[in-house]
Amino acid sequence: MKLVIAIIQDQDRLKLAKALRQAEFQFTRLATTGGFLKHGNATFLLAVKDEQLDQLLEIIKAHSQTRTEYLPPAVASTLLDQMPTQPIEVTVNGATIFIVPIEKMIKF
Ligand code: 2BA
């Protein structure tokens, strides 16, 4: 079994949750915040059998979208060590996914 930790953009959380339910995946959804942009994002936790992994990744890929953000110089200067002269372009991936082995899963 694997634990899939998927960080996706807030705008995609509802459609991804719906698709996961339709495919009968169990999941936990956390409201999280990106350390750089300090925007809300969503983190999904899913424990799945190894043979379900490809299907799960396809669903996440199909329901998460890469977007470009433009940070005004004044906002960017609070995140970086310098004051840029132009807005900073930031590409936010549709999903950042960590896959880790599960030694044991227990429910009481
Ligand atoms: P944030 O930390 O808010 O980062 C949003 C986007 O800002 C990132 O998109 C990246 O394009 C950019 N970015 C992050 N740190 C930067 C820096 N020091 N300098 C310049 N640009 C920077 P993604 O890489 O697609 O990440 C989207 C979200 O996924 C992140 O939101 C964070 O919540 C999570 N994430 C990404 N990589 C991670 C990692 N290695 N560990 C834990 N969480 C991660």
**CATH fold naming of the domain at 2-65 and 93-101:** Alpha-Beta Plaits
Rounded Rg: 17 Å
The average pLDDT value, as a whole number, equals 94
Query: Architecture of the domain at 2-65 and 93-101, CATH level 2?
Result: 2-Layer Sandwich
What is the overall silhouette? Answer: elongated
> Strand fraction band?
35-45%
Q: What percent of the residues sit in helical stretches (DSSP H or I)?
A: 25-40%
- Write down the CATH class of the domain at 2-65 and 93-101: Alpha Beta
Helix-strand pattern, N to C? EHEEHEHEE
Parts with pLDDT < 50 across at least 5 consecutive residues:
none
Number of strands: 6
Distance between the termini: 18 Å
| Strands ordered across the widest β-sheet | 2-3-1-6
Q: Note the main sheet.
A: 4 strands, antiparallel
Ligand inventory reads:
ligand 2BA
Q: Which class do the helix and strand fractions yield?
A: alpha+beta
Number of helical segments?
Answer: 3
Task: Provide a descriptive summary of the structure in words.
The chain has 108 residues and is an alpha+beta fold. Helix content is 25%, strand content 37%. The strands form two sheets. It has a four-stranded antiparallel beta sheet, with helices on one face. Strands 4-5 form a two-stranded antiparallel sheet. Strand 2 and strand 3 form a beta hairpin. The longest helix has 10 residues. The protein is elongated, with a radius of gyration of 17 Å. The two termini are 18 Å apart. It binds ligand 2BA. The site of ligand 2BA has 12 residues, from strand 5. Ligand 2BA binds next to strand 5.
